[in-house]
Task: structure prediction
Amino acid sequence: MKSLRARIVVLSALMAIGSAIICAVAAMQVARGNLLAMEDRQAGEALASLHRRMQQASDGLAFEANDYGNWDELFAQMPVPESGWARINLTPGKVHGALTQFMITGEGQRITGRFHDGDVRSTQTSARDPATPAALVSLLGQPRPLSGLALLVGNPALYAVTPVRPSNRQGEPRGHLIALAYLDDALLARLQPDGWILRWEVQHVDTAGRPGPALAWGQPRIEREGMRLIVTTVLTAHDGSLRAVLTTDRTAGKRIGDQTALAILVAGLGAAVIALLLGTWLGWRWLAPISALAKACRQQLDDPQARLPGNTGLSEADVLSDSMHQLIMRLRIGQDELAHALDRESVSNAVHRRFLTQLGHEFGQPIRRIIALCEQMERRAGHLDPVEVAAAKNLANELEQRFQEILGMVALEQNEILPNRPLGMHDYLSGLADLMRPQAEKAGITIQVEAPPDAVQLDPALLSPILINLCANALRAGISGGQVWLKGRIDQQHGEIQWTVQDNGPGLAEPLAVRLREAFTRGEVLPGTPGIGMGLTLALANARTLGGSLALLNQSEPGVTILIRLPVPDSDRQQTPTASERIRRRR
Result:
């Protein structure tokens, strides 16, 4: 009882631990999912902020360019540049001027002047103005104000271009005013979202593209490398494409995810503790009746009069108790019937064995006396024909060998088992060899056994007489110092078990060999067939009963080899039920 209760507690504890592990895994998955969703949302907000800040910077450039483009008098008083294009330094408005450079164009879309923030007027190229005139020419010739993103042959910048018209707004534009804000470190610091680092990479440049208002934002790609969150998108302008890379630290998001996992884990552990307590109580309540039933069953082994518990309060336990009671009653009845059946079988077998033994002794004594008389007549009665005395003696010896075979079968029956029970081939043949060894030693012949240890279904009551008879014939036909082989093998290809009895004696006369082959082919011996006695007749009958056959094999060396072919028994073949099997099959 204590062992069962301990098992209940251990089982409940294991269930609670499993619940905790499942909750922990679920917490980790939920936290990871929440973290990924939060980071995706954070990435979307960062891209939206970048888009908004770029739009604000572009709108500021457009406002400033349009404001300066309305000051026609400013451009009317400009000096004429000395070269194809020159730099004229002015200070534009202060709101966006820190990021703005201005340019004006003259006839034939030729760059004639450039304004940028700073107080130094010079014709030297400014360090903050890396674009070449050839790249800037692509922005000219616009009939109306325009702003956007231009790559300028590898020098990306936000631009705004507006036509410069006379004060009366009549006639064609005198030129164009271009405002540029290069995407340098200063502008990146203003454009990048809070908590993010912005980086630009030029992907593609198209020198034949014309400026336009369209700026396409590509599908963002979110990557996670260790503790870094990387968001990448591609901005496609009229003259190429630019990749924007935003990078931030994942520490804050991971901390939130860990807190979420901890909260779910604590809730899971609480649920596991509740499951442990509930499982322990339910197990105690449900298994107590079963424990009492098991204890009563153990008592039944010592005290058959002990009763099984009933009305335990648990219907399943009551049904099990009733079934166990009926099973025990049937088992007792079956044991009684089995004991009576075994007693009858034992008595019958004992009578059978005594009869055969008595038969052997009753006939054996006279035969031995006949042999002894023949020996005396051979020594003393000189007037008798020696050939006839020898023939009488040989006949008496042969008759004695027949009865020795009967006695050997009786000894074999005393150790016999039920038909068609698995037996090792080598062990079975070794047992037969032991029975025949006294006769072999008397004849000076050695018996050899060759067979695998595999177990096969055998019916020794029918097979043993066949092998004993063939082995006895081989011993009689053998020569002193010779050998007799008992062999067995399984032929899987033909689905049969093959038994072989072989000797190295002088062999058979050709007429007798022909008669044996004819008898083996027919499967029976015709009455009066010379040279074939009762033993071979019984062997053929038993082989036919087993569904097999005998065959006389040809061999180049002296001796005789007889092969017994038997089919491999079917595992589900109907067998004659024994007394114990009849008891087991009773319902």
Notes: The domain at 419-587 is CATH 3.30.565.10 (Heat Shock Protein 90). Residues 73-125, 572-576, 578-587 have pLDDT under 50 and may be disordered.
